[in-house]
Specification:
The structure is a homodimer of 201-residue chains. By secondary structure, chain A is mainly α. Chain A contains nine helices and no strands. In chain A, helix 2 packs across helix 3. The first copy, chain A, is elongated, with a radius of gyration of 19 Å. The termini of chain A are far apart. The mean pLDDT of chain A is 91.
Chain lengths: 201, 201
């Protein structure tokens, strides 16, 4: 038997290997065997930790979303800076090949969510947390007088998240590297700049 | 040999059968055989029209996007009404089970676009046409004095399309029927209402 610490290390190693294997082979083609090879562990050991590929991928989604949530919750600075950082992290991140490959694997995984309760629940929970994080940044900005007081944090958060998600999907599937950046600029022109502008009056 | 008219009828019938088969089985599981069964034609006849499943699905994507483009170009009324109709057609359409199934199959297909030149070219062309259609509606509205003269048609069109696309993907993958409607409302609150409001001054 492994002790708790060993088990936690093994879990992290398997998650890293899953990340690499998904980037390399994509969601549809990844197998327990390929993940085992990537991790340098035996397929048997992988099965000791996870019953099935479904089980492993649901755990990976949970791990990835938790890491993402920690990541965006750790953004600091003024509300203004936090909002910029949040939006740009989404857009700039999608530039690297590895991030593109992961984002594509995640998009494939998401198309399975209508048939997979665990994926769907985790995606719904994550959607809620991310929207709340954006809304809280805007709320703080209103409280501190840097954003207009009549702005609706939940409504803006909804539009920010949907447009960034759509932009990334289109950038990836159309193969136009500037797509997400162009939508970010549109988001500033139509929504974010206006959120700030009125405070200068 | 079929004459041109027969060939065109057969093409439409095969496209209809592909639509049905994609809704029934999804993109990953659909086969030439299943599409043949759906169309009431032999697999041999299907192969007479299309060399491979890839070939057939690329033709189907072209057919579907062309139909969608005709559909949105046929929207009439004042620019105000046209914009509402465009946005609501996207959102309301996604409500029915059949449309959900098709949208999901299309999302799966889009995840293959980075590896499929024909998909990617068609999706890029469609993206451009749809954005231009929205921008033209806004441009007409500015010319007719119903939308603010300082609005940027291309920028707003970009944000409208990205946010609706992201909203539909989230509605579908999270399984929340009200998601696209909520993003539409956010789009009106943050962008569209503002496009109109200033003209009353």
């Amino acid at each position: 038997m492994e002790n708790e610490e060993q088990s936690e290390t093994a879990h992290t190693e398997i998650m890293d290997a899953t990340y690499q294997a998904l980037c390399k082979y994509g969601y549809a083609s990844v197998t327990m065997e390929k993940i085992a090879t990537e991790s340098g562990k035996s397929k048997g050991l992988l099965h000791y930790h996870f019953d099935s590929k479904d089980d492993l991928l649901a755990a990976f989604l949970e791990y990835l979303l938790a890491r993402f949530e920690q990541d965006i919750e750790s953004i600091d600075g003024t509300p203004d800076e936090q909002l910029d950082e949040f939006i740009n992290r989404f857009v700039v991140d999608s530039g690297s090949d590895d991030r593109q490959a992961l984002h594509l694997a995640l998009l494939e995984l998401r198309t399975d969510a209508p048939f997979n309760d665990r994926y769907r629940e985790q995606l719904a929970r994550n959607d809620k947390i991310v929207r709340e994080t954006i809304a809280n940044i805007i709320r703080d900005g209103i409280d501190q007088g840097v954003f207009r007081s009549d702005a609706d944090p939940e409504t803006i958060a909804r539009l920010v998240l949907a447009s960034i998600d759509g932009a990334r999907t289109r950038e990836l599937t159309i193969g136009d590297d500037g797509y997400a950046g162009a939508v970010r600029d549109a988001l500033y022109d139509c929504v974010i700049d206006d959120l700030r502008a009125e405070t200068n009056e």
